[in-house]
Amino acid sequence: MKLFLIGMPGSGKTTLGRTLAAHYGLPFLDLDAEIVARGGQAIPAIFLRQGEAYFRRLEAKVLREVAARPGPLVLATGGGTPCFHDNLTVLNAAGCTLWLDVPEPVLAARLAAATETATRPLVATADRPEQWLHETLAARKQFYSQARVRCRGTACTVAAVVARLAAAGFTPTPRGELPPDA
């Protein structure tokens, strides 16, 4: 079974994804890192040279390839991934989706860090990052809310998330192991 983390930039998808992958003994992938590997350049460079539309097509292609891989994994998606090219349908069909629903002020504080802004082209090019965050979150909620599991707030501890995932039926088996009832 695959686990896909979705949410706004700065919500902690990569950080929590790595921790959950280690907890479950599953491989971890970051979709942005996969895109960089395929595209041969950093995401800000892709946005600058080819534009957002090209990036979103590449993102959708790479997402479908990752979702089709055999075996379980944990994938941290990009903030906009679920919102384009019917990607959320792909995610929900291929595994369990987890929305990290972090409050807007917390996201703003996280995204204000210089290193965060530099690696996020949509934030970096916004004239008013707080307004961009507010408007983007409002537009994306319709997609994020379709996740199978939602974790609200900043206290999404591994224990709390694991309990929510188990309640939703997410019980992964690391690659090569049989489930206990097999």
Automatic annotation (TrEMBL):
Keywords: Amino-acid biosynthesis, Aromatic amino acid biosynthesis, ATP-binding, Cytoplasm, Kinase, Magnesium, Metal-binding, Nucleotide-binding, Transferase. It catalyses: shikimate + ATP = 3-phosphoshikimate + ADP + H(+). Mg(2+) binds at T14. It is an enzyme of class 2 (transferase). The keyword Electron transport does not apply. Its EC number is 2.7.1.71. It comes from the Bacteria. Substrate binds at D32, R56, G79, R140. ATP binds at G10, S11, G12, K13, T14, T15, R120. Belongs to the shikimate kinase family. This is Shikimate kinase. It comes from Hymenobacter montanus. The lineage of its organism: Bacteria, Pseudomonadati, Bacteroidota, Cytophagia, Cytophagales. The gene is aroK.
